[in-house]
Amino acid sequence: MKQQKQYDDPARFEFSSDSGTLLVSGVNDRHAVILSVPPEVDGVPVTGVGNGAFFGLPDVKKIIIPDRVRFVENNAFKNCPNLKIVELSADLNSIGAMAFAGCPELKEITISCHTHRFDVNSFKGCRKLRSVYAKCPDRIRHFVVAPESDESLWLYLRAVNSACDPHGGYMDKYDATFLEITDETDKFYIAVDRLKNPEDLPDNMKRVYRKALSGMIHDIIASDRVDRLTVIGELGCIDDEDLAAHMDFAGRIGGRCIAYLLEYRRRSGMLKPYDFTL
Predict the structure, then answer these.
(1) What Cα–Cα distance (Å) separates residue 247 from each residue in 38, 107, 214?
(2) pTM score, two decimals?
(3) Where are the beta strands (DSSP E) in the chain?
(4) Residues in Cβ contact with 234 at an 8 Å cutoff, skipping those fewer than 6 apart
């Protein structure tokens, strides 16, 4: 039996009337850590989040907005320094300007495939935002995005929206955005996610992602990021013809990567039926 979703007492919030429905206009519990807005109050549906409704909450870490909500106004969640996770409505159409600006810890957000409008500065400065979940008609889909700049994040949110469009969305619109990204950390996480979850991933983009990861190996060895090198190796993106050069460089650096590369060579040598060259 499906567990019924729990919502907070309406008394924790302030509401204002809007043509027979309600907007969340403020929060009475200013030191709440988790907030879950009720979908209705005394039978009247909550359909919007008003301007600055959650502005400046110092302790909140997670906010849940019910599925009837259709819009989020400007500055709605602005300057919440510890906000990490936001679950927005499945019926959401728009996110206003500066809605999440000043939320430096925001890491994960759930949006709707109906969310077609948000400003380039809606997520201004959200440099840790990496996971976007999109509520599609048949399931919730996960996307890794690039928060290297406000423009990059906006591009990815638009691409996520296009990929989830029920009237012909395709992942190629999401994949094409990868070519606009310059930050190596962003490129690493996105390429790894797509190669691990290759839904509708064409061969040409598979090569692009593999090449991007292969091209990072020198810098990864130099910074002794054996965790990243291990992921790249598991995805088969260490070219056999470059392995000797990588090992020579890692040996001179003297970090942890040389041990992994030695083990990688040993394991690849055991898998004789397979050819790792491109």
Answers:
(1) 58, 35, 14
(2) 0.88
(3) 13-18, 21-27, 34-36, 40-41, 44-49, 62-64, 71-72, 85-87, 94-95, 108-112, 117-118, 131-135, 140-144
(4) none
pLDDT band, very low/low/confident/very high, at 167 (cuts 50, 70, 90): confident
Q: 226 pairs with which residues across the strands? A: none
pLDDT digits (tens, 9 = 90+) for 74-122: 999 999 999 999 999 999 999 999 999 999 999 999 999 889 888 889 9
- Unique residue bearing structure tokens 């500055």: 75
Distance CA 85, CA 226 (A): 29
On the question of pLDDT at 155 being above 50, the answer is: yes
Q: DSSP label at 148? A: S
Structural contact between residues 38 and 8, judged by C-beta atoms closer than 8 angstroms: yes
Q: Which residues constitute the domain of residue 21? A: 1-129
> By C-alpha distance, which of 115, 100, 185 is closest to 147?
185
Is residue 144 assigned to a domain?
Answer: no
Residue 99 to residue 78: CA distance in whole angstroms: 6
Q: What is the CATH number of the domain that holds 92?
A: 3.80.10.10
Say how far apart CA 98 and CA 214 lie, in whole Å: 37
